[in-house]
Task: structure prediction
Amino acid sequence: MKKYDLGFRQGIFSLGLLSILMIHSCSDGAAELNPQSDDQLTVGFFAEGQSKGTLKIGELDEASGLSHSPSNPLYLWSHNDSGGQPFVYLFTESGASMGRVELQGAENVDWEDMAIGIGPDSGIHYMFIADIGDNRAVRGAYQIYRFPEPDLTSVSVPNNFVLQPEDYDRIEFVYEDGAKDAEALMIDPTTKNIYIISKREENVGLYELAFPQRTNALDTARKIMSLPFTYITAADISPSGNEVLIKNYRNIYHWQQDPEQPLTIPQLLARPANRLKYTPEPQGEAIAWHQDEIGYYTLSERKDNTAPPILFYAVLVPFRER
Result:
């Protein structure tokens, strides 16, 4: 009886140990299999994110794009994602509401990112609003709205601007390889090409709408390359074109040009990325360069009725000293 009891206890101990090992193994495996996990060391080119203030626009609760104003450095722009009003909201670094732009006749099917850059007239800063979200990859076409940024130095602020359909361009397009979800848009200041990065693949795709984009017929975004990242939620090219930022929910990646041998954007992104320090956000889907390239901002959607902070990551090591 004692012999049987000892064996029984040994069996229970072995099963328990096996269970612990299995649980531990599964936990480690889950961490290793998380597609956004990255153990690449971060570089110290930029400081950690510091809050400039909290967003104080109640109706901007699903911020999914961000741009710093080139006409007035006191302000930033953002918008809601799917189902929101066709509004682009203006606010200060500290989060105070300063008005909005309304695109009458436009529809926010799933606005996921925005950028400010050059377009048809090189002397004008254009706002690009990307209606490119498609969680189930079922949409027949996508669109990007393009219009000149209001000159925030020549008008009174706060202000609400209303654009009629004739005041903005609508770039309607499809992908050459079929429907897909995307949340990241970039404008190349050198070529005026538009770049879109898909979201959900194990290795996301970089797509190009070459300038001049069509506004009177369906355009096609051409796949340029795959990138070794997943769940990409935002991207931005610096105003000079010297640096690129791409982020997912857990990481920010960075590329910089060699001033002596500048590359095209696809050539640059084909090189290994730097991984930057990232202050975790509840659902960070927006990133934007400061127009003077002294740092960059990130912004999250609202979570549990808590206003998100506007985070700024200041340059620590100047571009030409890295």
About this structure: The chain has one domain: 45-321. DSSP finds two helices and 22 strands in the chain. Residues 100 and 160 are 5 Å apart (CA to CA).
